[in-house]
Write a structure and sequence with these properties.
This protein is α/β, with parallel strands linked by helices. Helix content is 32%, strand content 23%. The two termini are 34 Å apart.
């Protein structure tokens, strides 16, 4: 796959990716069916390689029905009709994803054993490898397993999980396979390696701030945070190290390895200033309240008999993106307007010291799945994007960020 020329209909890092899904023999093998389905729906081509043990938990026919492709269970399969078995699988793959990965499978991959198709592909593949461990908690914490996991990490293998919780044995501890969502993000991160933003730290804000009136009420807005999360995912797809600052009600899943949840504009301001210290790009996609109550009532405000109105004094919130130094930081802002959209956006571009501003109709965009945006940069005419899903719009925005990050050349 190449950047940024990805298909418009589904511009995620998974679309068009060829993934070998290795399924090993643990009770969590049934979850691999959901994982395969999710990858297929995201546009990936999935070839499943099952260990002998995995077949005791899930039948190959399950994966054949999901992927509409042959499932490999033995190392000598796939050598017909000019195919070269594990060699072809490894050569054609963009990613090897082993989920679940039992202690036995982790040990065999660490030792380089090629006694089945999964082991042979793991030994032959040059693409990234992601491993999602799943086992009983004492097996996970055993020094042998930890040593094998350390070996894989040293070789550049990404380890996602395991999670803590109730295990198949009935005990509680570490060893649950990570959620499908977590594994998918780990896969996208691995596929993004070497992308145009590799080595760059991107800070993304998402959601709408809440400014407390009393312990149970607040002043807020209708932002869902979908665009902010879509931007975080799009940046992940092109190799960035993404830090998410999300508000309550937004589900960032804390999957980017470095994320915080805030409530008010003041909390977001503090989080942003901390995060941008070593950042390269700031994308302020959050809808930050312009005003907040001058004072928060300590107790719930009660209506009084005969009371027909309530006055709340508001004071201005800090302008977060304008307050962030821009000497070595590319700053991206948003202008959600209800009138004079382009004029207001251009003024914000200048007044806030932005490199790029995304202008859109607030009513048609906030809280919705689709968006129609205009990208305004200093070095060219405004670029109007067609209405599309927010994931597609987010990828186009990130494409523009990539363009702005490219070294500028001058004619001799």
């Amino acid at each position: 796959m190449s950047w940024p020329d990805r298909p418009e209909e589904n511009r995620t890092g998974l679309h068009g990716a060829r993934i070998v899904l290795g399924v090993s023999g643990g009770i969590a093998a049934y979850k691999a069916a959901e994982l395969a389905s999710t990858l297929i729906q995201a546009g990936a081509t999935v070839d499943v390689a099952m260990t002998e043990g995995a077949g005791h938990f899930v039948q190959p026919l399950t994966f054949e029905g999901i992927t509409h492709r042959r499932v490999f269970t033995g190392v000598f399969e796939g050598w017909d009709n000019g195919e070269t078995g594990h060699v072809a699988l490894a050569d054609n793959a963009d990613l090897l994803l082993i989920a679940p990965a039992t202690a036995n499978t982790i040990a065999r991959v660490a030792l380089g054993l090629a006694e089945d198709m999964l082991g042979a592909v793991a030994l032959a593949i040059q693409a990234p490898i992601v491993v999602a461990p799943a086992m009983e908690h004492r097996m996970w914490h055993h020094p042998a397993t930890q040593a094998n996991v350390d070996t894989l990490r040293q070789r550049g293998v990404s380890i996602v999980g395991p999670a803590s919780g109730r295990l198949a044995s009935g005990a509680t501890g570490d060893g649950r396979m990570s959620s499908t969502a977590e594994i998918v993000v780990a896969a996208r991160r691995a596929l993004g390696r070497g992308g145009p933003l590799a080595g760059k730290k991107v800070v993304v804000t998402a959601g709408g701030t809440q400014e407390s009136i009393d312990p149970v009420r607040f002043v807020g807005n209708r932002s869902s945070g979908r665009m902010g999360l879509a931007l975080a995912e799009a940046a992940l797809d092109v190799g960035a190290d993404v830090h998410v600052i999300a508000t309550h009600g937004v589900d960032p899943l804390l999957l980017w390895g470095d994320a915080v949840v805030v409530e008010s504009a003041s909390e977001m301001e503090l989080a942003v200033h901390r995060a941008v210290v070593d950042a390269d790009i700031l994308i302020m996609a959050a809808a930050v309240a312009d005003f907040r109550p001058a004072a928060k009532a300590e107790q719930k405000i009660k209506k009084q008999d005969g009371q027909d109105s309530l006055e709340i004094s508001l004071v201005r919130n800090p302008d977060i993106v304008a307050s962030v130094p821009s000497a070595s930081l590319l700053k991206v802002g948003f202008a959600a307007e209800t009138e004079h959209m382009l004029d207001n956006a251009v003024r914000k571009l200048e007044s806030k010291g932005l490199d790029l501003i995304v202008a859109n109709d607030a009513v048609a965009t906030i809280g919705r799945d689709r968006s129609r945006a205009t990208l305004i940069a200093r070095d060219r005419e405004p670029l109007q994007l067609p209405e599309a899903d927010k994931q597609v719009v987010a990828s186009r925005i990130v494409d523009e960020i990539v363009r702005l990050m490219e070294p500028q050349t001058t004619d001799a």
